[in-house]
């Protein structure tokens, strides 16, 4: 029983720390933050999948927020996002 409790506590802490590291999508350039670069990603035909990939790349780059500046495609989507920190 003690092992289950410890496992659940560790899982809760890991989930909380990962969510605080994720970049946040914004609609306009955030005040007080500086642009640090641009990332691009490709996806199938799902806009949500494209957003998730851009979010992951923004987090990997160390951005605290990102703004999608372009997305296009028919059967294969591609997009770019500007990163802020």
Strand content: 25-35%
Radius of gyration: 16 Å
Shape: globular
Q: In order across it, which strands form the biggest sheet?
A: 1-3-4-2
What average pLDDT do the residues reach?
Answer: 83
Spans of at least 5 consecutive residues whose pLDDT stays below 50 are 15-20
Cα separation of the termini? 43 Å
Order of helices and strands: HEEHEE
Number of helices: 2
Total strand count, please? 4
Helix content: 40-55%
Q: How would a crystallographer describe the biggest sheet?
A: 4 strands, mixed
Structural class: alpha+beta
Signal peptide: 1-22
Keywords: Signal
Pfam family, one: YdgH_BhsA-like
Domain YdgH/BhsA/McbA-like: 34-85
Describe this entry's structure for a reader.
Residues 1-22 form the signal peptide. The protein is an alpha+beta fold. The protein contains two helices and four strands. It has helices at residues 2-21, 47-60, and strands at residues 24-25, 35-43, 65-72, 77-84. It has a four-stranded mixed sheet with strand order 1-3-4-2, covered by helices on one side. The radius of gyration is 16 Å and the shape is globular. The model is unreliable at 15-20 (pLDDT under 50).
């Amino acid at each position: 029983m003690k092992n289950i409790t410890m496992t659940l506590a560790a899982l809760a802490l890991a989930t909380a720390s990962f969510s605080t590291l994720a970049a946040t999508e914004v609609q306009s350039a955030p005040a007080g933050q500086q642009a640090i670069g641009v990332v691009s990603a490709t996806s199938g035909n799902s806009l949500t999948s494209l957003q998730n990939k851009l979010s992951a790349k923004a987090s990997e780059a160390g951005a605290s927020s990102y703004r999608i500046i372009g997305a296009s495609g028919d059967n294969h989507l591609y997009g770019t996002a500007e990163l802020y920190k």
